[in-house]
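Figure caption, in words: inputs first, then the predicted bound structure.
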Amino acid sequence: MIQCWRLDHVGQTIVFSSRQQRLPEVVYCGDLLPDNDDLHALADSLNRPLTPGTLDQIVPLSLLPEEGRGFPGQPGLRLNDDAGRPALTQFTLTETEELESGIVFKCTDARSGLVLSLSLKFQTESRVLEVSSVLANNGDRDWLVSWLSVPVLPVGEEFTDIIEYAGRWTQEFNRQTVPISRGVHLRENRRGRSGHDHFPAMIFAETGAAYTKGHSCAVHFGFSGTHEMLLEELPDGRRQAQAGYGEMQRLCRGDSVTSGIAYWAFSSRGLNGLACDFQQHVRRHIVTYPQGAGARPVHYNCWEAVYFDHRVDELKDLASRAAALGAERFVLDDGWFGANGQGRDDDTTSLGDWFVDPRKYPDGLHPLVDHVEALGMRFGLWVEPEMVNLESALARKHPEWLIMPADAKQVAGRSQYVLNLTNPEVGEYLFERIDWLLSTHAIDYLKWDMNRDLTLAVDGEGFPLLIRQARALNALLERIRSNHPRVEIESCASGGGRIDYGTLRHTHRVWLSDSNDAHERWRMQNEAFVFLPPEIVGSHVGPRHCHTSGRRLSMPFRALVAMTGHMGFEMDLRELNAEETDKLTRYTQLYKDNRDWMHKGAQLRLDCAAPESLAQMIVSDRRDRFFLFAGTLDVPRNETTAPVRLSGLDPHARYRVRLLNADEINRSATRRYENPLSGPDGIVLSGTALMQSGIVPPFPFPDTIWLFEGQAEELT
Ligand code: DGJ
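Bound structure (DGJ present):
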C-alpha cells in the first residue's frame, strides 16, 4: 500500500510517500508540479534496482531513518533505556494533519509507546521550509535521547559540494567548500553558542553553482546552545541531511522532547536564490521589531574609542561628535558597572555586578543619557548577563550560581565564568537588575554580549544543560522584552559567536564580528548575507588604523562597507580629519536617504571573474532601483578592469546608472576613464544589457568600492 501527499507553496512542491504505513519519505522537492501529476507514479518511478551483496530491501530514507527498520546509515533517532538498551523503533503512521501550507505526520511505535510528530511547514509568502520533530513518551519506561533529528530531507545526488562556514574570533564566516564524499560529514558545536567556528548551516551545491547560477539548497539549524549537522552519503549513493541538538535529553514517561527547528531553502537561481528566500524569511517570520521594522538608526558605539576608560565628559563629547556626523543611537559599551568599590576597569572583574559604577558615574548614567537624548539620539547599553567574574560581589555572594561541576576544575575564559540560568534564582536576579536599568533610564537598546564558551556544562546533578541553558536565556530575553516592549536587543558573542535564527527570534541585530576592519568585513558580510538580511547585520565604520588587524583603510571604503549592513561608527571620533569628517557625513546621509528601500530589498552577490573582486547589489523589492557595490580587495591581476554583470533586475526595464563616487578615482591607478557612467547623467540601459553585458568600473587600488546607483526610467 502506498500513500502520497503533496505540499505546494509559492512555486515549490514537496511530495511525500509512505509505504505500508511506515514513516513517510520525501520523493520530490523542487519547482511546482502540474496539478494533475500522478504522485504514485512519481514515487514508483524512483524505485531503485536491488543489487547483489546488499540487504533484500532498500530501506527507505524516511523523514526519520530508523535503526529498527534496518536503515544502514545514521539513524534520525537514538535513544536508550537506563540499562543502555536501544529503542529499536518501528513507527507506523497513525495520523496526517494537512495544514494550509504544511503537513504534520504523527507516528506511533507500538512496542515502546513512543509517539513521533514530524512537522514540515511554510510560513505565509515565504519559500523557506521549517522542519521540526517532537518525540513524546506514552510508554511505561523512561528514556535517554542522545539524538533526535529534525525531519530528514534527502540531498540530491547531483550536488557535488558542501559550502559551509568555519572561522574564529575576528574571522567569522570563512567560507569552505568540501566535496561530498562517501560517509558522514559532521559539523557540530557543543559549547553553548552557535560559535565563531561554525555558523550552523550547510549549503549543497552542484558543480559550477555560483551566486547567479546553478542549483543549490541549504539548511540552517536555528539554535544557539548546541548543534550537530551532518550530511551522509550511503554506499548506495543516497544522501541525507540531519540536524539537531546533539545533547542528551531525558524523556520521562508522559513527557516529550523536541529536535529544534531547521530551515531549508532551495534554489535553481544560484546562491542568490537562497539569499533572497532566507533574507525575506528572517524579515517576515524571525525578527520582530518593537514598532515594526522602521528605519534602522545609525549607531555610535564607544568601545574602540575608550574601551574601559569611561569619563563622562569625554563620552559626552564623543556623543556630540557622533550626532554631528549623523548618528542616531549612542551605545555605551563595557566598563560602566561595578559594586562595593570595585569596578570594571579591565576584563578581569565585575561581571555580574550590574550597578552603575559611582567612581566613573558619580551622578549615575543620567547625565550621559540626558546629554545623548538632548542631541536627539537614543541610548543603548552593553550588558553581559550570563557571565560572572570571580572578582565580583556576585561571585563572592553566590558561588553556587556558577556552572562549576563539583570536583572538576572549570576553565576560565576571558577571566570569566558562566552563571547557571536554569537556576530560577539566577534568572530572577538578572531580570531584576536589567529591569531596573531599563525602568529607571531612557534605554531602548541592549547590546547583549557573551564572551566565552560553555565548558563542563552540567547541572548540580552532573546532567548536561546546554539545551536548558539556551532555553532559559531565551525565556529571560522574552521576559525582558515583554516588560519593556520598546527595547531592541543585539546578539553579540565576542562578535559573531551567537548568530542563528533561534537567537534572532528574541533579538534584533547581530554583531557579526569584532573586526571593524572593512577589508575583512566586506568578505564576511557578503557570506553572511546568504542567511541574513542587511539591516540586522551591525557594521561599523572603524578606526583609520584598524585595532584588530593593523590595516589602514580609507574612509570611503570603510563607510561603504558599513552602508551595506546596519550602519554605525565605532572609533575615537577625535581622530577624524576634515576630509574624513566630510566623507563620513556624506555617506551616512546617503545611507539614511536610501535605507528604507535597501532594507526591504534583496542583497545579491555577483560572480566576478577577477579573484580580487567582490561585488554585491542591493535591489529594491520593486526592482525599480539598485545600488551596485563593486569592491576590490587586492591588487588587480589584469591591466584594466573587466565588466561587472548585474543581477536581479527587471530585464525589460531601462535603468539610468551612475557612478556615485567618481571623486574617488585615483589618477595613479586609472589614467583615463572615458565612460559616461562617471558623468552626471550616467547611462541608460536595459536590465538585460546590464545583466548580460555589464558595466566597467574604474581601475581600483586595493580596498576600494565603486558605488553605482541605478534607477528605472520605465518599468515593465
Ligand atoms: C566583545 C564585543 O564583541 C565587543 O564589541 C565589546 O563589546 C567587548 N566584548 C566588550 O567587552
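The mean pLDDT is 97.
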